[in-house]
Design a protein that fits this description.
By secondary structure, the protein is of the alpha+beta class. It contains two helices and six strands, in the order βββαβαββ. It has a six-stranded mixed β-sheet with strand order 1-2-3-6-4-5, with helices on one face. The model has no long low-confidence stretch (mean pLDDT 95).
Length: 128
């Protein structure tokens, strides 16, 4: 059985999808961009967008009853390869050790003129 995850601590989806889905013991988090949860705005600064995107992803993970230490894989989309090193500066603040698998893809554009989008797969229960 699939369970939908939606939390007011992350921005509402900008399209027809849920913030996350849990199937058995796996959580699949939809792409999160750097929208500010409080005012709905998109900051221009890459570091701020990236922090917001990871906080938004973290909120969905926690709403499913998990945490960042249980993230198995992260996918990152960037609008410029020049953002790769600044991404890592922020990434280290969210994942300090036992890093999840990660892929980083450079794309032409993202929704709402975002510079970064992140998603992940995490486990939510060890008993299954």
């Amino acid at each position: 059985m699939k369970f939908l995850i939606n939390t007011p601590l992350a921005p509402k989806p900008v399209g027809p999808y849920s913030q996350g889905n849990v199937y058995r013991n796996l959580l699949f988090v939809a792409g999160q961009i750097g929208l500010d949860v409080i005012n709905g705005g998109m900051p221009d600064d890459f570091h701020v967008q990236t922090k917001n995107a990871f906080y938004n992803m973290k909120s969905v993970v926690e709403a499913a009853g998990s945490n960042l230490s249980r993230v198995l894989k992260v996918t990152v989309y960037l609008t410029s390869v020049d953002y790769f090193e600044p991404l890592n500066e922020v990434y280290f603040k969210f994942f300090a050790e036992n890093y999840p698998a990660r892929e980083t893809v450079v794309v032409a554009a993202l929704p709402k003129n975002a510079k970064v989008e992140v998603s992940c797969v995490a486990y939510v229960r060890e008993d299954q």
